[in-house]
Design a protein that fits this description.
This protein has three helices and no strands. This is Flagellar hook-basal body complex protein FliE.
């Protein structure tokens, strides 16, 4: 369940309403492709936040403070989810390395 929540935070398209599926939010493939796609989505979200902030600061028509703040919050949530996943992976790795056979 945590994985689905993190994937939805990282991939906005996964959170879109639609037909209910029991499979993953990403198409089947290797793990590296999944990680690369998730990191690209986080990077795109951060880029969108930067553009929204710069647009508001420059006074671009249609750029509002609320849009900039929402974009910034989305980027922050995506980054926090990425860090949480990294921490879990590191913790799992350390647990495996501490196992004695």
């Amino acid at each position: 369940m945590l994985t689905n929540a993190l994937l939805q935070a990282v991939n906005p398209l996964a959170a879109a309403p639609g037909p209910s599926t029991t499979g993953p939010a990403f198409p089947p493939g290797n793990f590296l492709d999944l990680i690369n796609t998730a990191l690209q989505n986080v990077s795109a979200t951060q880029g969108a936040a930067t553009v929204a902030q710069a647009g508001f600061a420059a006074g671009v028509p249609g750029a509002t403070l609320s849009k900039a703040l929402v974009a910034n919050d989305r980027a922050q949530v995506a980054w926090n989810a990425t860090v949480a996943v990294r921490n879990e992976v590191v913790s799992a790795y350390q647990s495996i390395m501490n196992m004695q056979f």
